[in-house]
Design brief:
Oligomer: single chain
Helix content: 40-55%
Number of domains: 2
Radius of gyration: 29 Å
Shape: rod-shaped
Structural class: alpha+beta
């Protein structure tokens, strides 16, 4: 039992189609490898997460709402990375500490 056609013209047609398909598959592989390499370069070039984060209010003139440890998933979308002394000052001036990452404990500030 053969799964290929027995005559030469159909075999040549099949060969041509397979060569065309193989070229397309190889091009897709090359594109996927290029995308993956770009993604890896982007990950490598990404700046490190800040150690401390101030979550900001709705407008740019409002005071910070919460202090977080850098990388806290509860920080929301509006935040900025700050130095340790800025985080300490914010906590001592009454900005709320995140209840999930506990920056006050990490900074050694206990109410």
């Amino acid at each position: 039992m053969h799964d290929l056609p027995p005559d030469l013209p159909r075999l040549r047609t099949l060969e041509t189609w397979l060569i065309y398909t193989l070229k397309r598959v190889r091009q897709e592989i090359a594109d996927a490898e290029r995308r993956e390499a770009e993604q890896q370069r982007g990950i490598a070039a990404r700046p490190p997460a800040p150690e401390w984060v101030l979550e900001l209010g709705l407008n740019r003139d409002s005071l910070p709402i919460t202090v977080h440890v850098g990388g806290c998933h509860m920080a929301g979308k509006r935040w900025k990375g700050v130095a340790r002394d800025v985080a300490v000052r914010a906590l001592t001036e009454g900005v709320q500490a995140c209840g999930h990452c506990h920056p006050d404990t990490a900074l050694g500030i206990i109410d």
